[in-house]
What we know:
By secondary structure, the chain is mainly alpha-helical. The chain is 73% helix and 0% strand.
Amino acid sequence: MKVLKSVLRFYINSSIHVALSCFALVQITFHVFNIQCDKSMALFVFFGTIVGYNFVKYDALVRVKKKRIGNQLKIIAVLSFISLLLVGYYFFHLKRITQIVAMAILAITALYTLPFFPNRKNARNWAGVKIYIVSLCWVGATLVLPLINAEIPFAFDFFIKCIQRFILVFVLILVFEIIDLANDDPHLKTVPQTIGVKWTKILGLSLLMPFWILEFFISTFNYHDLFINLIMVLMLMLFIVFANPNRSKYYTSFWVESVPILWWLMVVFL
């Protein structure tokens, strides 16, 4: 049991799980827009997520707080380095315009982590903007990049799906912010800090309704996807309702982040 817990802890701490979630959303994008599975695109996002998230999570610990590097952190560093090499490999398999947009997303990630401006904190610590930056990055990586690389024109369906994807990630982050309420710096002005847990839950539940209703407006509308989306929405609603600051970190870092993976599995097997 102790070994299993250690494996699970490493799986989550090394950002493999969140990378799988991004990978799943890329697969959902392929499905929705009838794009032939592009392995290079999907793996670029997967390994890029590992590199990006580990950089965001551990840069401050090592560079600023000078935390001692333990064995697990060393293994995560090796994994991140290997992932960086693979990101570089798959980057050169992408089209030029996709590479340019990917570099823009990378720049936003760097801005999120590093203090580029004098006497200013990094974007991660700017009051009230964290949730929007992360949501935009996820939309860019899991929706915009695959469509650009497949040379799909930005038609009406694209904008509908961008709104849906933004809402989905926004709501997922709301659950994280509820769980992390006791530990977050008050100056971050997260949504629960600003409007309280009750109204954050109401906001999350309210946003899931337009997320589902927007499915009716896409040109590739079908009842199969509508039904699967409904299951996913109901699942997310339960996570929102039962979220509270006393929950284990695995409530979000494993179960909530599993929602995109479960969504993709339903698309594949149902």
